[in-house]
Every structure is written in structure tokens, then in C-alpha cells.
Specification:
Length: about 180
């Protein structure tokens, strides 16, 4: 599915595509990016009757403001009550590399990789990154998963990804793009 424009208006359709494909492919894990937890709650609700385990990956604490976790505890608790898991951790393509860029004005290897993935769309970069983060935390297995990301807010991208950890980042494979905004 190619969406005309990116954004949260595509969230329901993206989750529907992901659910259909997870069931058809007998996928064990769905990995969802969610800043505030709103998309994570929608995903946990949508996948409640699906055998796949939902893992919601949020921004690290301090991502936008020192000491602040952007995912509300209320949303995190709702996700957990519906059987999902929540992972809050450093984004592997932003953390230290962003600090280097801010301090020195130079790009780091992380930013080069992130910007290269953005050639396929912001959501694809997010899908790859959250799979590595979820593997690093031990919340998903090193196998094909469905990853759901977005451009800004909401979900507008999903892909089948062969997940792997950040130290094996270049062994991660985007096997199939199931939905994304066209031209973004």
C-alpha cells in the first residue's frame, strides 16, 4: 500500500495491513514505534486477539526534554494491560551520534546510516531502528517480525524485517515493505 501523504491519518490502515500480514505469515512479534504511547495503545488494542506479541518502542527519556519520558505512564500501562510490552531506550541511530553532531557540527556514522535509510522514507528508518532496539533489549527474537513506524506522528509504514541486534545492524534485512507513504 502506498499512501498519498504521510502522517497519522494512515495509522488505522497501516495497523490493519500489519494485522492481516502477521496472521497470514504466522509472525511472532509486532514492533511498533510510539512517542506518546497513543499509537502503541492503538496497536495493542488491534493485536489483542493476534498470537503475535506486541512490543512498543518509545523515545528514550530526555529525547526532547531533559528527564522527561514522552510516553505517558497511563498509555504504557494500557499497553501492558492488553498484553504488550514497552521498551524505552536509546535510539541506536541518534544517541551518541546526535551528541557528537551538536557538539562538533560534524556528522557521525549513525547519522549517515539514518539519513541513508531515510532515502526509503522516515518510517523505514524507524522500522529498522526499533527492530534493533527490541532485539538489544531481548524483547523480540532474531527472526522475521512486522515493524510499524511513521513519519512524525502516527503510523504510516510497516515492513517485514529480519530483526537483529545493533551490534549486527548490517545483518538486519527489510524483507518486504507492506505500506509506506509514496514519495516521502
Amino acid at each position: 500500500m502506498y499512501f498519498k501523504e504521510p502522517g497519522p491519518k494512515n495509522t488505522d490502515a497501516t495497523l490493519d495491513i500489519a494485522l492481516k500480514e502477521a496472521m497470514a505469515r504466522k509472525i511472532n512479534h509486532i514492533v511498533v514505534a510510539s512517542t506518546s504511547g497513543e499509537t502503541g495503545v492503538k496497536a495493542a488494542r488491534k493485536f489483542q486477539d493476534c498470537p503475535a506479541r506486541v512490543v512498543v518502542v518509545t523515545h528514550n527519556t530526555g529525547f526532547s526534554q531533559e528527564g522527561v519520558n514522552e510516553c505517558s505512564e497511563e498509555n504504557a500501562e494500557l499497553i501492558r494491560r492488553m498484553g504488550g510490552r514497552v521498551h524505552t531506550g536509546t535510539h541506536i541511530l541518534r544517541g551518541l551520534g546526535n551528541a557528537i553532531r551538536q557538539r562538533s557540527g560534524n556528522y557521525s556514522e549513525e547519522q549517515i546510516v539514518a539519513n541513508t535509510l531515510r532515502i526509503l522514507g522516515e518510517g523505514i528508518k524507524v522500522c529498522v531502528e526499533i527492530c534493533a532496539m527490541a532485539c538489544d533489549s531481548g524483547l523480540i527474537d532474531f527472526e522475521d517480525v512486522i515493524a510499524i513506524g511513521g513519519t512524525g506522528r502516527g503510523a504510516d509504514t510497516c515492513a517485514v524485517v529480519a530483526a537483529n541486534s545493533s551490534n549486527k545492524f548490517f545483518d538486519i534485512r527489510v524483507r518486504e515493505i507492506l505500506a509506506k507513504p509514496s514519495g516521502f
